[in-house]
Amino acid sequence: MKENQVSRRYVLKAGAVSSLAAMGMPTFIPASAFGANDRVRVGVIGINGRGKDHIQGFSRLNDVEVATLCDVDSTVLQNGASDFEKKYNKKVKTVADLRQVYEDKDIDVVSIATPNHWHALAAIWACQAGKDVYVEKPGAHNLREGRKLVEAAHHYKRIVQHGVQLRSSVAIQEAIKHLRDGLIGKVYMARGLVYKWRPDIGNKGNSPVPSELNWNMWQGPAQAKEFSKNYVHYNWHWFWDYGNGDIGNQGIHETDLCMWGLDVGLPEEITSAGGKFLWNDCKETPETLTSIYKYPSSGKVIQFEVRPWMTNKEDGVEIGNIFYGDKGYMVVNGYSDYKTFLGKERAPGPARNEGGDHYLNFIEAVRARDTAKQNGPVETAHLASGIAHLGNIAYRLGRTLHFDPKNEVFVSDKEANQMLTRKYRAPFVVPEKV
User: Fold this and answer.
1) What percent of the chain has pLDDT over 70?
2) What is the pLDDT of residues 25-43, one digit of tens each?
3) pLDDT averaged over the chain?
4) What are the start-end ranges of the E strands in 308-422?
5) Spatial strand order in the sheet of 288-295
6) Is the link from the previous residue into 208 a cis peptide, with omega within 30 of 0?
7) What is the distance between the alpha carbons of residues 59 and 394, in angstroms, rounded to a whole number?
8) pLDDT tens readout for residues 348-393
9) Measured distance CA(121)–CA(124) in Å, rounded
10) Which residues does the UniProt record annotate as the domain Gfo/Idh/MocA-like oxidoreductase bacterial type C-terminal (predicted)?
11) Residue 66: DSSP 8-state
């Protein structure tokens, strides 16, 4: 029977239920494609931060229903459900364990807005359960699991959209076309800028786990440690076990655009330097970070700058990208605004400010069962995240690193290669074979 002739719902592979459940794995497999007029039911996992935008983004779309909210913090979950009911005048199902979302045969799509260390595993489990996936940036917490996410999406024939919203911006798509068409000449350098206001977070030390939080589930793939308010609910970004610093937070939008604009993949040479120069707090990741990614074989380079506090703008940009060519340069400010400056006199060239709908683009690809329709395909989840990981590894080791982008390993560097993955905690393990 052809894929589009069967029911859109999912069937239980009964013989595997007990063994898969024991390993913490999902137990549903796909049995269908979407029909053009089917209602898409979404489960949102992680609703305290970006998840709120996911709820709003999917709720505004036609024939799309946010059916389930999931969070490991019962207070966050209850408040989220209450807000949902007030805003949309209907109740929503709530669950505390993301595996319950995957086991629900009525859920078609999962939207993942957990902390970074959960992104790839949650998305892989969703693919194995027959769900399509919208996953927040970065798509992976380390390089290896990003590759495994790509493999899972292709193996299970799932639509996996990475939350790099600027990919759906009409203006930015036009800007990329200008770069490809030679408006600023030979484009040889991209500069990524992340100048965010990141204050001193102090050090709250360890404390008892709050009664409303499932700390074991929150930690998931990470090694177990004592609870601290230093981590929950936002400042986990600044600890290596859970986050990736600002280059792996806000910076993923800009790493993605650097690579997209230059038309490159992972680099061959990486140098990073930085540190903590402002605050004597408990952050582990650098406040200030400068990374240089070189592409000797194509004569291109990416410069990436993270600054956390008082600083200048560059051509009006705090968050964005600048592309340099031999006939001019292009400034991208935020997610939907570009300007160009041509020749030695910097004469104003084409410019535009217009956004797009990344959630809609995802749903359209889901309905069509066509990855070619995606603006933020799963490969961006791996590559845009991966280049940030490489910069962080170079910073942590304090030396220039040489990388083989074809095989995705460092050249003759055992210490660096060990940092391409992590030690996982059962049953929250990214599988070797998806």
Assistant:
1) 91
2) 544 444 344 444 589 999 9
3) 92
4) 319-325, 328-333, 337-342, 347-353, 401-404, 409-410
5) 347-353, 337-342, 328-333, 319-325, 187-195, 300-307, 288-295, 269-275, 401-404, 409-410
6) no
7) 41
8) 999 999 999 999 999 999 999 999 999 999 999 999 999 999 999 9
9) 5
10) 203-257, 358-429
11) E
Tell me the CB-side half-sphere exposure of residue 197, using CA atoms within 13 A.
0
Topology adopted by domain 3-166+360-376: Rossmann fold (3.40.50)
pLDDT digits (tens, 9 = 90+) for 131-151: 999 999 999 999 999 999 999
On whether the CB atoms of residues 335 and 165 are closer than 8 A, the answer is yes
- The CA distance from 373 to 53, in Å, is 22
* Structure confidence at residue 24 (pLDDT): 52
Whether the CB-CB separation of 346 and 234 falls below 8 Å is answered with no
Domain ranges (residues) in the chain: 3-166+360-376, 167-204+235-355+386-416
What CATH number is given for 167-204+235-355+386-416 in this structure?
Answer: 3.30.360.10
**Is 275 in a helix, a strand, or coil?**
strand
Residues 6 or more apart whose CB falls under 8 angstroms from that of 294 comprise 267, 268, 269, 270, 271, 300, 301
Residue 70 corresponds to which amino acid? C
**Dihedral angle over CA of 387, 392, 395, 397, nearest 10:** -100
Token pair belonging to 193 = 């800028």
CA neighbor of 285 nearest in space, from 308, 303, 312: 308
The strand pair at 319-325 and 328-333 is best described as antiparallel
Give 159-227 as a DSSP string: -EEE--GGGG-HHHHHHHHHHHHTTTSSEEEEEEEEE----------B-PPPTTB-HHHHHTTSPP---
What are the backbone dihedrals phi and psi of residue 29, each rounded to the nearest 5 degrees, phi first?
-120, 155
- pTM of the complete model: 0.92
Cβ(309)–Cβ(286) under 8 Å?
no
